[in-house]
Design brief:
The protein is of the alpha/beta class. Helices cover 24% and strands 19% of the residues. It folds into three domains: 27-88 and 117-326, Alkaline Phosphatase, subunit A (3-Layer(aba) Sandwich); 334-458, Arylsulfatase, C-terminal domain; 471-545, Immunoglobulin-like. It has twelve helices and 20 strands. The strands form four sheets. Strands 1, 2, 3, 4, 5, 6, 7, 8 and 9 form a nine-stranded mixed sheet that branches. Strands 10-11-12-13 form a four-stranded antiparallel sheet, with helices on one face. Strand 11 and strand 12 (352-357) form a beta hairpin.
């Protein structure tokens, strides 16, 4: 009996050890992102509409008050998020490049980055993570297939292997600028009469209705967040997952989106840790240090226990490799917006914002066709032309700009009172001016180069460069894959012709994997491989049967 008990105990230990080995050591990471929204949430003190699900994340996590986009518009911002690089350093600063450009004889293009630059999700995949994006990219380049296991409308952590850690992104479009007019006939979830009108807007029925529609969309988006959290709970993964919520830049409203004022750059950012990672410092707390979108890539890698590559231009503020020194400045840039060219750079410390206008002869307002679909934009222009805007509301329509602007954000949060010529603030002006120049010297600024010339430098005879097809060879029963394209990633998948089935990740349908090192092959294995690099045309498939 004692011998039987010992055997049983050994079997139990073996089973337990087997289970522990299969349990992922890395935490799951879930990103829920929304569009075009400043800090209009209950947890940030804005009670215009209820946001219970996002407020719950803040109550059970950390609310950040100083996270900034690097642009007041989506595509440059998203390029910074996915690469960890300033758009002005890699050529992704214009809005936008991949889709129809409202410029004569200028076709869409994908930027070509330096060979070391990759989508940071690729490093997670190499570390064993199942990475999904649902669904928007808008990176200013076609995402290489190496970036995601799944990148489509149905992408979901549920499609991973058992116990595989995941990094999943869900992009919610509901609060996007376009939804103000596309959802205009849906029921309002807040009365237009209850809306607080910023001083830079006139106050009438049309303005109130559009802002009420925008806030109603925020409420709908919060419900969508709740649905994603419910799925996480249903799968038993809530307490295994680090959850981050944030917006891609400020509000999608006039004189906010596309601007470098705080209302266009500062976004809500909330992180909720699973129970095993919680302590008194990350439950219902607030963090006020300066952070930039270029910090997100290294921060996620750090949370996953991956040392961020040295080429990244941001610094981790989360996880094992978090920077010990607090960030002193954040930086932002504004360049072409659709058809309209400008070049503005911004530097912000905890209290002051510096703006450098490289085209002071240009007006502040840009007549961008896309936003003219918004009723309140058309109404603001009508009132302007009728001479019915007050002095504050006319600030947007000044015909020229000073070369430099300086604002005290504590005293002047709307950034209306330019202190650049005030001798009392000369030292701060000099400090932030130098911070801007140092930033340009360190990282470069492709905004100095005419866009067409920049694109010509990236392409070959007017066409994107092409990744060369990989070579697959067998050495000692291992497949070795290589490519001659510098900086290219190699992806591969395996099918077995002898068995008559496709094998990969224990699934019937073979998935593309990132090639890291030589791997064992069996008789009948059919190896498919391609090389891919940001901005390059993906290579043709190489196919070898062993």
């Amino acid at each position: 009996m004692k011998k039987l008990t010992n055997i049983s105990l050994c079997l139990c230990c073996m089973l337990l050890f087997s289970w522990v080995k299969k349990t992922p050591q890395q935490p799951n990471i879930l990103w829920i992102t929304c569009e075009d929204m400043s800090e209009h949430l209950g947890c940030y003190g804005d009670l215009t509409v209820p946001t219970p699900h996002i407020d719950r994340l803040a109550r059970e996590g950390v609310r950040y008050t100083n996270l900034y986009s690097i642009a007041g518009v989506c595509a440059p911002s998203r390029s910074a998020i996915i690469t960890g690089m300033y758009p002005t350093s890699i050529g992704s600063h214009h809005m936008r490049t991949q889709y129809k450009i409202d410029l004569p004889n200028f076709p869409p293009y994908s930027i070509v980055t330096a060979p070391e630059v990759k989508c940071f999700s690729e490093y997670l995949r190499e570390a064993g993570y199942f990475c999904t994006n649902n669904e928007k990219t808008d990176y200013q380049f076609e995402p290489p297939i190496s970036a995601w296991d799944e990148n489509n409308k149905t992408a979901h952590w549920r499609n991973r292997k058992p116990n595989q850690p995941f990094f999943s992104v869900f992009n919610l479009m509901t609060t996007h600028e376009s939804q103000v007019w596309m959802r205009k006939d849906e029921p309002m979830l807040v009365s237009p009469e209850k809306i607080k009108i910023p001083s830079y807007y006139p106050d009438n029925e049309i303005i109130r209705k559009d802002i009420a529609r925008f806030f109603s969309n925020i409420s709908v988006m919060d419900t969508q967040v709740g649905n994603i959290l419910k799925q996480l709970e249903e799968d038993g993964e809530l307490e295994n997952t680090i959850i981050c919520f944030f917006s891609d830049h400020g509000d999608g409203l006039p004189f906010v989106k596309r601007e470098l004022y705080d209302r266009g750059l500062r976004v809500p950012f909330i992180i909720r840790y699973p129970q095993k990672m919680r302590n008194k410092e990350n439950i219902n707390t607030t963090e006020n240090q300066l952070h930039s979108f270029v910090d997100l890539a290294p921060s996620v890698l750090s949370l996953a226990g991956i040392k961020p590559p040295k080429y990244l231009q941001g610094q981790a503020f989360l996880g094992k490799f978090a920077a010990k020194k607090e960030r002193k400045y954040i930086y932002a840039a504004r360049d072409r917006m659709d058809s309209e060219y400008d070049r503005v750079r911004a530097v912000r410390d905890k209290q002051f914002k510096y703006l450098r206008n490289y085209h002071p002869e240009k007006p502040y307002y840009q007549n961008i066709a896309f936003r003219l679909q918004q009723d309140m934009m058309k109404e603001i222009l009508r009132l302007r032309d009728a001479g019915k805007l007050n002095e504050t509301q006319m600030l947007w329509f000044r015909q020229t700009k000073p070369v430099e602007e300086l604002y005290d954000l504590d005293a002047d949060p709307d950034e209306f009172n330019n202190l650049a010529d005030n001798p009392l603030y000369k030292n701060k002006l000099v400090e932030l001016r130098q911070a801007h120049l140092d930033w340009v010297e360190k990282y470069g600024d492709k905004g100095e180069i005419p866009e067409r010339e920049m694109v010509a430098q990236m392409q070959i005879n007017g066409q994107p460069p092409v990744s060369q097809a990989p070579t697959i060879i067998l050495k000692k029963d291992k497949a070795h894959i290589s490519t001659t394209t510098t900086g290219a990633s190699i992806i591969y998948k395996i099918e077995n012709e002898v068995a008559g089935t496709k094998k990969q990740d224990n699934q019937q349908i073979a998935r593309w994997q990132i090639y890291i090192k030589p791997f064992n092959v069996n008789r009948g294995d059919k190896i498919f491989a391609m090389s891919t690099r940001i901005g390059y045309t993906q290579s043709k498939e190489s196919i070898v049967i062993f």
